[in-house]
């Protein structure tokens, strides 16, 4: 059996765009939580300066499927003009 894959993704909103970034994430979270293998996909830290999303996937295959899925593509498109820098992610 494979170990779950854990990630944190950090988003840095442009000045004044916190609420729009948060809204885009909230919409995506609802969709992503229904994806196969999603064990956790939620905001675990937020401030006007940054938002941290914690993810946990049952397997690398589930994470790979997610990264190619429509929900993430839609989120990336929604956030493209709202972030001060590209989102960063780290395995934990």
Structure, explained:
The structure is a single chain. By secondary structure, this protein is an alpha+beta fold. Helices cover 36% and strands 29% of the residues. It has helices at 18-32, 60-67, 70-79; strands spanning 5-11, 38-46, 51-57, 88-91. Strands 2-3-1-4 form a four-stranded antiparallel sheet.
Strand order of the largest sheet: 2-3-1-4
Number of helices: 3
What structural class is derived from the secondary structure elements? alpha+beta
Give the ordered list of helices and strands.
Answer: EHEEHHE
Rounded average pLDDT:
96
Give the low-confidence spans: none
The major sheet is characterized as: 4 strands, antiparallel
Care to count the β-strands?
4
Task: Report a brief summary of the structure.
With 92 residues, the protein is an alpha+beta fold. Helices cover 36% and strands 29% of the residues.
Write the layout of secondary structure elements.
Elements: E1 5-11, H1 18-32, E2 38-46, E3 51-57, H2 60-67, H3 70-79, E4 88-91
Antiparallel strand pairs: 1-3, 1-4, 2-3
Helix pairs in contact: 1-3
Keywords:
single chain, 92 residues, alpha+beta, four-stranded antiparallel β-sheet, 3 helices, 29% strand
């Amino acid at each position: 059996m494979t170990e779950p894959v854990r990630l944190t993704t950090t988003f840095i909103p442009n000045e004044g765009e916190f609420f729009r970034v948060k809204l885009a994430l909230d919409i995506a979270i609802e969709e992503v939580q229904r994806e196969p293998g999603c064990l956790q996909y939620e905001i675990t830290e937020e401030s006007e300066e940054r938002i941290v999303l914690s993810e946990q996937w049952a397997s690398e295959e589930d994470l790979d499927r997610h990264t190619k899925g429509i929900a993430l593509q839609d989120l990336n498109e929604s956030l493209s003009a709202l972030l001060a820098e590209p989102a960063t992610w780290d395995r934990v």
